[in-house]
Amino acid sequence: MTIAILGGTGPQGQGLAKRFATAGVPVAIGSRKSEHAMEVADQLTAVLPANSASINGYDNAGAVAAADEMVILAVPWPGHNQTLEALKKDLSNKILIDIVVPLKEGDPKKTDMPPEGSATEAAQAILGEKIPVMGALHNVSAHTLNNIEATINCDVLVCGNGLEPRKKVMELIEKIGVKTYNAGDAEAARCIEAITPILIRINISKAVPFSHAGIKIWAPEN
User: Fold this and answer.
1) d(CA 87, CA 220)
2) What single string gives the DSSP state of each residue in the chain?
3) What would you report as the CA-atom Rg of the chain, rounded to the nearest whole angstrom?
4) Rounded to whole angstroms, what are the CA distances from 89 to 93, 155, 201, 216?
5) CA-CA distance, 210 to 82, in Å (whole number)?
6) How many angstroms separate the Cα of 4 from the Cα of each of 10, 107, 131, 153?
7) In angstroms, what CA-CA distances link 140 with 94, 96, 101, 214, 216?
8) Selection from 121, 107, 136, 109 nearest residue 190 by Cα
9) How far apart are CA 123 and CA 135, in angstroms?
10) Cβ 80 vs Cβ 101: under 8 Å
11) pTM flag (> 0.90)
């Protein structure tokens, strides 16, 4: 099953492409310019183990067309709505996995939530209810994703309207070695996306002796 990653040439997109390809999932990375996507795809392929699945580059519409069902949106927040408006017809019969966090311009320690309440809800409003939008992977750092020799140090909360597409997304994401949790409908993205600037604040704090932290769901000891 080929998945598409729009914004696949950026840090998060590249990390996800490497993780999924290493897990045996073919990846189509999309960019505004197909030439750039193809160049990055070749660079990523060169550093992967020999038994990895393929990574190929396309323009955004071509990447969506190459995907069997799942399309990950990993573009910067300023280009979020514009990208979806341009690809709305192409995304018919797909499930969109929106990993975008609306960070405040000039201050990534804060959010600038859209009127809909979250990036996930904004995407659903643009695409309409017939195209399921699932929010996920908001709280995993690009550095962590790109370090494929290490396990991912956090769990992933998945939200969105529709239980069946939510389950499909959870199953896909668990292929890269993380535990996923069903976080409910799209409105939950307001809380989940807002965790990211808190993590950014912690990770850049001089009072904290580590960086690239994530979140974990811990069970009681008793």
Assistant:
1) 44
2) --EEEETTTSHHHHHHHHHHHHTT--EEEEESSHHHHHHHHHHHHHTS-TTPPPEEEEEHHHHHHH-SSEEEE---GGGHHHHHHHHTTTTTT-EEEE----EETTEEEEE---TTSSHHHHHHHHH-TTS-EEE--TT--HHHHH-TTS---S-EEEEES-HHHHHHHHHHHGGGS--EEE--SGGGHHHHHHHHHHHHHHHH-TTSS--S----------
3) 16
4) 9, 32, 38, 37
5) 36
6) 14, 29, 15, 24
7) 23, 18, 11, 6, 11
8) 121
9) 10
10) no
11) yes
pLDDT tens over the chain, length 222 residues? 999 999 999 999 999 999 999 999 999 999 999 999 999 999 999 999 999 999 999 999 999 999 999 999 999 999 999 999 999 999 999 999 999 999 999 999 999 999 999 999 999 999 999 999 999 999 999 999 999 999 999 999 999 999 999 999 999 999 999 999 999 999 999 999 999 999 999 989 888 888 898 999 998 987
At residue 142, φ and ψ (nearest 5 deg) are -60, -35
To the nearest 10°, report the CA torsion of 165, 171, 172, 174: 140
- Residue type for position 194: A
Length of the chain: 222
